[in-house]
Amino acid sequence: MVAQEVTLKNKLGLHARPAAHLVRLAAQYKSNVVLVKDDARIDAKSIMGVMMLAAEKGASLTIECQGEDEEELLAKLVQLVEDKFYEE
Amino acid sequence: MTRKNGETKVSASHHAAREIIVRGIPASPGIAIGQVHFLRGDVAAVPPRKIAPAEVEPEIERLERALEETRAAMLRSRQRAVAMAGTAVGRIFDAHLLILEDQELQKEVRGRIAREQFATEFIVYDTMGRTIELLEKQKGELFRERAMDVRDVRAQLFRFLQGGQDAAPENPDEPSILVAANLSPTDTLHIDRTHIMGIATDLGGPTSHTAILARSFEIPAVVGLGDISARVKSGQTLILNGNSGKVVIAPTAASLKEYRDKHKRYQRLLANLAGLRDLPAETSDGHAIELHGNIELPHEVESVRTHGGTGVGLFRSEYLFLTREAPPSEEVQFEAYFKAAEGMWPCPITIRTFDLGGDKLHPGQSALAERNPFLGWRGIRVSLSHPDLFRTQLRAILRASVKKNVRIMFPLIASLWEVRDAKKALDEAKMELRQEGIAFDEKMPVGIMIEVPSAVILADQLAREADFFSVGTNDLIMYTLAADRGNEMVAKYYDAYHPAVLWAILETVRCGHKAGISVGLCGELAADPLATALLIGLGVDELSVSAGIIPEIKKIIRSIRFADCQEIAARARELPTAEEVRTLLEEEMKRRFADLPIWFTTEG
After folding, report:
1. What is the CATH number of domain B282-362+372-602?
2. Which of B101, B223, B411, B512 has its CB 3.0 to 4.6 Å from that of B355, i.e. a possible disulfide?
């Protein structure tokens, strides 16, 4: 398993459209992805799960990937967060 | 419509004990009488029904079929919404598709059917219900909206599990008023317009999707009625006034007759007015007025045209923020503006730049709540503090001006520097487009909304910076009289006929004309038949009203003499109280228009 902590920098946090970006990206890979925020652990391939996480701008998340393509997926997800979900 | 305020929110009529009046937020104009028709926006609770192990596989197959059919229906809804209202509104349905296609959710439902051996309906109801419950527990409007999305998806999936169709299953077969706690975008989109005469909902504001779509469909609607869905019974008669926001539950025979008569007279009047469509809006002694329509969705230009409007005086661009997500892109905006401009061509359309309050830009951030939002971060102030947002909109508007029938105007101008800064941003956007070789109208007229008293006081100077003025009476009255009409305690202080308001309009006209620019008026006062002669007499050049009211106002314009309007205005200006102004206008209008039921729209 690989993991990395990220901070949300985009204006809207993990609301509908950024959440959709993240879920679509995760769905293209075989590995399982879990987002961890405080005590909550959710499956990043579920839009409802991601919405429930209610992550606002400035929130810290840990992304955990596990599976055959875990390295590549983690890198892509971190990139997506760094690029502010192409929102701005 | 302008009206005397001060009704209590919920009051039993003095005449009969059973008639109940409830006040909400007027969301779409017009009067409707009909029987209560509940829209089961949500599915009723489903009892768990056990299935045999052998039934598990057929149940899961049934689920897969329903998922596939629902998905196809959502794509159709999206197409329909895009065709009617553009990409921005269509996006609502993208969120639904994502929820429906949630792999985790689907896995969970399939797993539970196999493990727990209950019928699909129960498992779907229960699984999605848990998500809805969790979302509703969160703070913030955005989560409530997401919960509504999940509810909407669940209701649609249920329709197909039960062999249904796209539209709401039970459409009424007699004139009805749709009553619901809240309407989902899907429900609103599929309303049966032959039998649904009006819409009344517990929740919602004037800019909710229900309100916007209702106006667009020209169905009278009142939203924000509190608990109306719990107070009425199916089949009960309702009178709904989308002009005033009043709903009468179980009206007395007398009320019913009164409204029916009015309604009939109004319909007859509208039929008579249809003949005016292609005639100009000019007084009997030849003084021409530009009579334009206010729109929110691009396709409404059709309605402005069919009602005989010769332009759009106010295109509110805020609907592009309907989905409350990231700001709309340049392409999405361009598409909307160009569609409206093209549909109205060669007549002009006037696009007002975003008139947003702070809350609409940052969904979910309730920390930004202002102590005094009307005196806060709104209108041009938001645009000037968000150069990227503003630039995107200016570029989109400029690109849409290519056929030379687009005008732009800036809301909530209070100082000269704001106009200069906004025009500077416009010049920069023009420069970019020139460099990119993109065509636009180099001479696109730039207007200023006059809705803050300081803009009236500075009108002389502002007129030199603008190609036209547009008086936004709703805000101008509020700021001039320091009264919020939404606040019942002070609503009576908000009065369009207050002498100070008349002076402000007159002063704006005087300064505008001195500088040789036209002065329009696009607030609700423009749509008040009582005010037409007065406004023309004060020298207003252009009136912009919602499309349905154009024929009525045109009829009045064509029936009066400009000289008489001037005389009425001169007399009104001398009167010291709003009450006296109103009495004067009522007498004059009744005397001249005995045959016109023009009082219809002004009554609560």
Report:
1. 3.20.20.60
2. B411
Quote the CA–CA distance of B384 and B380 in Å, as a whole number. Answer: 6
- Amino acid sitting at position B304: V
Strands B246-249 and B20-23: antiparallel
**What is the architecture, at CATH level 2, of domain A2-86?**
2-Layer Sandwich (3.30)
Q: What is the pTM of this model?
A: 0.72
Q: In this structure, are residues B524 and B26 in contact, taking their beta carbons and an 8 Å threshold? A: no
Q: Is A15 a catalytic residue?
A: yes
Contacts of residue B326 in chain A, CB cutoff 8 Å?
11-12, 17, 87
Q: Is domain B53-161 in CATH 1.10.274.10, yes or no?
A: yes
pLDDT tens profile B470-516: 999 999 999 999 998 777 788 889 999 999 999 999 999 999 999 99
Architecture of domain B10-41+170-258: 3-Layer(bba) Sandwich (3.50)
Q: Break chain B into its structural domains and give their ranges.
A: 10-41+170-258, 53-161, 282-362+372-602
Q: How many CB pairs under 8 A join A and B?
A: 53
Nearest Cβ partner of A52 from B103, B135, B363? B135
Give B131-135's long-range contacts (Cβ < 8 A, gap of 24+): B131/A48, B131/A52, B131/B105, B134/A52, B135/A51, B135/A52
- Mean predicted lDDT score pLDDT of chain A: 85
Identity at B289, one-letter amino acid code: I
Unique residue bearing structure tokens 């955005």: B142
